[in-house]
Amino acid sequence: MKTALITGILGQDGPYLAKFLLEKNYKVYGMIRRYSNPNFENLDYLKITDKIEYVDGDMNDDSSLINLIKNLRPDEVYNLAAQSFVGSSWEMAKLTTEVNSLGVLYLLNAIKFFSPMTKFYQASTSEMFGLSNHNGSQDETTPFHPRSPYAISKVYAYWMTVNFRESFGIFACNGILFNHESPIRGLQFVTRKITDGVAKIKYGLANKLALGNLDAKRDWGFAGDYVEAMYLMLQQDKADDYVVGTGENHSVREFVELAFKYAGIPNWKKYVVIDPRFKRPAEVHALRAKWDKAKKVLGWQPKVKFEELVKMMVEADLKRYKQQLDLQK
Ligand code: NAP
Ligand code: G4F
Fold this sequence. Notes:
Elements: E1 3-7, H1 13-23, E2 27-32, H2 41-45, E3 53-56, H3 62-72, E4 76-79, H4 93-114, E5 119-125, H5 149-168, E6 172-177, E7 180-181, H6 190-202, E8 209-211, E9 217-218, E10 221-222, H7 223-233, E11 241-244, E12 250-251, H8 252-262, E13 272-274, H9 292-298, H10 306-328
Parallel strand pairs: 1-2, 1-4, 2-3, 4-5, 5-6, 6-11, 7-10, 8-13
Antiparallel strand pairs: 9-12
Helix pairs in contact: 1-7, 3-4, 4-5, 6-8, 6-10, 8-10
């Protein structure tokens, strides 16, 4: 039985990846940091909470990572833990750097010294491209132009991953993933903020949805599809870096329009207000993946299209609020 350690197990991608690996008969260890009250909601949603073995560790604490790698010596490590919210990274640049940059160095060092055969996946991001428009789409050869402390922290981690591969022969890969969403996406991210907001409006629990820049465009895919690409990267003969996305982009405005439509609420403009607090000091205007390499080498392709993704998220949030309201009756 293969073993995998997933950091960031309580986030969005951790549960989808864990489910995918469990179905492949892996033994899955999920790293959790010290919490007085950890939140298993996302794992509960996918009905896998009791199928994972939880282990303690914090990306800020190198000795906890050394202990884990030394004791488990897992076949694969998927490093998904991060301060992943771009919007907060200006106010929390130091924390963001410690978790997203130094934490990766600690993990790679632990692998190098205590389990050099462990394969390593680093959750890199399209945010690293930032302003690099590159004729409208980005691939593995596109130069980075990060626009936030978050993106900068991820560029460091990207290069450290490449460097451990080149310097020490560690099987270390970067998945440069474009935005991916799901019904368990964090509520701060724009897609889920919209679908949650729309569901509240539908049930009379809110009458406004405050957003920032509606013109930003993202290449939005489904998280459940993207975890397969993470796994495939670690099954190749040679470690490498891959862009993963859908090749289509849409504006926040288009997402809003569709979400209101799927909820059956006419005239979205009546509800959406622009609040400058949700605008960023430096915006990434548009991202679109050129994911030919992932298709050619990994044989991967996305399954869920944009419209289907919006519908899935709206329906899930409508269902959540309906269940809550039914319980209160
Ligand atoms: P997420 O929902 O924000 O989950 C991140 C996880 O990291 C959380 O479970 C969090 O734990 C954990 N974490 C934060 N600080 C930690 C620390 N000091 N020690 C240990 N764990 C810590 O993110 P996601 O959307 O699943 O994304 C997974 C990874 O992919 C992240 O690295 C993100 O930057 C990257 N990424 C995401 C996307 C995307 O569109 N989703 C695209 C490209 C790259 P708690 O639950 O305890 O807070
Ligand atoms: O949903 P977002 O916060 O995601 P963002 O900044 O693209 O980052 C996400 O995807 C990255 C991959 O490219 C990941 F690496 C990262 O960890 C994270 O998962 O914002 C998307 C866009 C931005 O342009 C933002 O300015 O939506 C715009 N936006 C407009 N109004 C808003 C809002 N974003 C948020 N969060 N909240 C708003 O009210």
